[in-house]
Design goal:
The protein has helices spanning 14-22, 42-51, 66-71, 73-94, 125-137, 172-184, 200-205, 234-243; strands spanning 4-9, 27-30, 56-59, 97-101, 143-147, 150-151, 160-162, 166-167, 170-171, 189-192, 198-199, 212-214. 40% of the residues are buried. The protein is built from 8 helices and 12 strands. By secondary structure, it is of the alpha/beta class. The chain has a 6-stranded parallel sheet with strand order 2-1-3-4-5-10, sandwiched between helices. Strands 6-9 form a two-stranded parallel ribbon. It has a two-stranded parallel sheet with strand order 7-12. The protein is globular. Helix content is 36%, strand content 17%. β4 (97-101), α5 and β5 (143-147) form a beta-alpha-beta unit. The protein has one domain (4-153, 168-195, 235-243): NAD(P)-binding Rossmann-like Domain (Rossmann fold).
Length: 246
């Protein structure tokens, strides 16, 4: 029996590399370079799908920097929204299972503990551009939208962290494992994936003990920050429980 063909976009990015590092068994991996597949170029996407039969996609490619998206909204929309739409249209023709890596920033990020059914009212251009991608993906029959946030415990490039900003961020190796799990699962829809609510300071301190506390109220950065982007992860826990027979 032929192996399923899995396309990973953004495979050279942090999450893409982490997914590959976890190991994906019994699949034929398609890991195109930017020259082979430019998601912002409709003809490039069409040509790639015309020459490859693709059973599954993990769509990681994105402009994920909040600052860059605020600085260049057009590029954010071109990549995160329109680029995703091009992939969706190509995937629709081949009935490809589509795993979309979205973000907790599609929520207002004010009160936290967001459920998948809560209103999506982003407070940043990054969030809006990723939500645009979600809307395209939701037109497919076989998809999984993963709302999440992650970080690299081995590379925390700042010396302070907010004590009054809360999240559900996961170490990148853990979210990579969860993405592979959901790829192979039959779940169809939107799911929050993360940890229990925790402040950025308490989270990062576990991995960088010398990090110092800071308050959002005293921070003078222009970049917009989430007050509370924590997620209700009960649906994901139920999905995992069903697999384990609980």
């Amino acid at each position: 029996m032929d192996k399923l063909k899995l396309l990973i976009t953004g495979a050279t990015g942090k999450l893409g590399k982490a997914i590959l590092a976890r190991g994906i068994l019994n699949k034929e991996l398609l890991i195109p370079s930017h020259n082979e597949l430019d998601i912002t170029d409709k003809s490039s996407v069409e040509n790639y799908f015309n020459t490859h039969t693709i059973n599954e996609i993990i769509h990681c490619a994105a402009i994920a920097s909040v600052g860059l998206c605020e600085k260049d909204p057009s590029q954010a929309i071109s990549t995160n929204s329109i680029g995703t739409a091009y992939l969706v249209e190509a995937a629709r023709k081949q009935k490809t299972r589509f795993i979309y890596i979205s973000t907790d920033y599609v929520y207002p990020c004010e009160q936290g503990n967001y459920k998948e059914s809560d209103p999506t009212i982003p407070f940043t251009m990054y969030g809006w551009s990723k939500l645009g991608g979600e809307l395209s993906v939701r037109t497919l029959e076989n998809y999984c939208i993963i709302r999440t946030s992650f970080f690299d415990p081995d590379n925390i490039p700042f010396d302070t962290a907010f004590t009054d900003s809360f999240c559900s961020k996961l170490p990148i190796s853990e979210i990579a494992k969860d993405v592979i799990f959901l790829l192979d699962n039959t779940f169809n829809g939107i799911v929050n994936v993360g940890c229990d609510r925790i402040s950025l300071y308490d989270l990062y301190k576990k991995y960088k003990p010398q990090i110092k506390p800071e308050s959002m109220l005293l921070n003078k950065e222009i970049i917009k920050r989430a007050k509370d982007s924590s997620l209700d992860i009960s649906l994901f826990e139920r999905i995992k429980g069903k697999l384990n027979g609980n």
